[in-house]
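hiii, so i know i said id send this last week but things got crazy w the move. better late than never?? heres the sequnce for the chain we talked about at the cafe, plus the structure i predicted for it. fair warning i was half asleep when i ran it
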Amino acid sequence: MKVLGIRNSPTKIRFSIIEGDATTYVFINHNGENKIDMPKSLKTEAEIFQWVKSEFKRIFDKYGPFDHMAIKQNENVPTRYSSVRPVMFLDCLATMVAIENNTPFSSHIYTSIGTKSKEVVSFVESKVTKSTTNWDSQMADAIAAAIKNLK
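okay and structure toks below
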């Protein structure tokens, strides 16, 4: 099984490709492409959304097909809606590209993954080889969401 894990932020896309089954799996792109920074030249929401959708299409074309796509979504904190809103739109764009590629998808918060925000890095490091560059909690989020969906 090949699962694409996604963790979006207002300034970048983090993604992991996990291949295997629920007990034995590999973080395929641990030392390859796994972080895409948004160009600073993008100014409007329309420009950002068009660019992000094209990047998700590129990921599917270059690394797919995938058996599943899993998104680690922002935790729902009502007082922070304005800060999570842009990421919610990016998550929707990823979902649309998954649908266009006939790829099942899911979205997760920490409780559904079985960890917590402060523990996700150590949770993931106990399961896969971490990347030598760009390693952070957002990368761990993408991996944890992907692992959750292995069968």
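btw The longest helix spans residues 81-100. thought thatd interest u
miss u guys!!
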